[in-house]
Amino acid sequence: MVIFENEKLKVRPLELDDKPLLVQWLTDPTVLAYYEGRDRPHDMETVHAHFYDRKDEVTRCIVEYDGQAVGYIQFYPLDAPAKAAYGYAQDDVIYGTDQFIGEPTLWNRGIGSLLVRSMTAYLIHKKGANRVVMDPQTWNVRAIRSYERCGFQKIKRLPKHEWHEGELRDCWLMEYRP
Predict the structure, then answer these.
(1) CA-CA distance, 130 to 143, in Å (whole number)?
(2) What pLDDT, on the 0 to 100 scale, is given for residue 53?
């Protein structure tokens, strides 16, 4: 099954056979510096608990580019507490996403931007989203610039929002509105 395709990009649901990929990416210190933290490498058990053994509304996916698995993306409808915390109306259809390109040799080639633009279009046109949001850490300037190029805007600073490498870090609530 394929969630969507755009140019050389394909997004498909996460499968059990993808565990070794996630372990490979989430033990790479270069990737962990931006996603999860270098102090939290993932072995098979951690990957299983974090990505597979969950009962929630998150859709977890593998990103392929030109036939090669290159990263991970997940999307989910914001729940009532998150909408309230962010100042959104409860009847708004809002989706959040989190993603990473797990192959650092493919960074800075536009794959992440293509992924974000494609996922945003999918959520708006196929899932009926009024808005799409992300919450990158404020220090991650490279990701923030990429999201801004994709049409996202900084909406609100979220103080001490995400645990990363031993401390709570500030994040930006970023939003895309069609």
Answers:
(1) 22
(2) 86
DSSP three-state, residue 172: strand
Distance CA 29, CA 40 (A): 9
Whether 161 and 169 have beta carbons less than 8 Å apart is answered as: yes
79-111 burial: b if 16+ Cβ within 10 Å, else e: eeeebeebebeeeeebbbbebbbbbeebbeeeb
Q: What is the mean pLDDT of each run of 10 residues along the chain (178 residues)?
A: 95 98 96 92 95 92 97 97 93 97 95 97 97 97 95 96 93 96
Name 65's Cβ contacts closer than 8 Å, sequence gap at least 6.
Answer: 8, 9, 10, 106, 111
**Pairing mode, strands 9-13 and 59-65:** antiparallel
- pLDDT confidence of residue 55: 86
- pLDDT for 54 equals 85
**Where do we find the tokens 């974000």?**
116
Q: How far does Cα 96 stand from its chain's mean position? A: 8
CA 45 to chain centroid, in Å, comes to 21
137 CB-contact burial (10 Å; exposed 0-12 / middle 13-18 / buried 19+) = middle
d(CA 93, CA 124): 9
